[in-house]
């Protein structure tokens, strides 16, 4: 499998898990057990995905964002751990050791992703002022896509 294919599949797993969770109303697609299963299925090794997902679920089970404090981001950590475990043949303990720092790095990048979504604000205001309900849906989908891409 080429590096580009691996990167695209990992990005697709992250996009499905993280963005669909918000699109469909907090349906818990961002939990590590679900993310790892999706990632494992995309890479063709669902067993490794489920095993690593169970381990990472135990790690992130008590991690909750309270108030303004944010914890490590579990979606990116899980996707990267499962991706490296399947494609590079990492041991489970090595993949878990990789997951936590990746989650912390992605957590610090999250505010920049929110800024991307705010660029669509003038168009949202214009559509709302004109009461254009048919224009709102495509605008929401395009803004959602760019924010979570």
From TrEMBL:
Encoding gene, per UniProt annotation: agaC_4
Keyword Transmembrane belongs to the record: yes
Record PROSITE patterns: PTS_EIIC_TYPE_4 (PS51106)
Protein name: N-acetylgalactosamine permease IIC component 1
Annotated TM spans: 33-59, 71-90, 96-116
Biological source species: bioreactor metagenome
Cellular component aspect of the GO annotation: plasma membrane
Subcellular location: Cell membrane
Keywords from the UniProt entry: Cell membrane, Membrane, Phosphotransferase system, Sugar transport, Transmembrane, Transmembrane helix, Transport
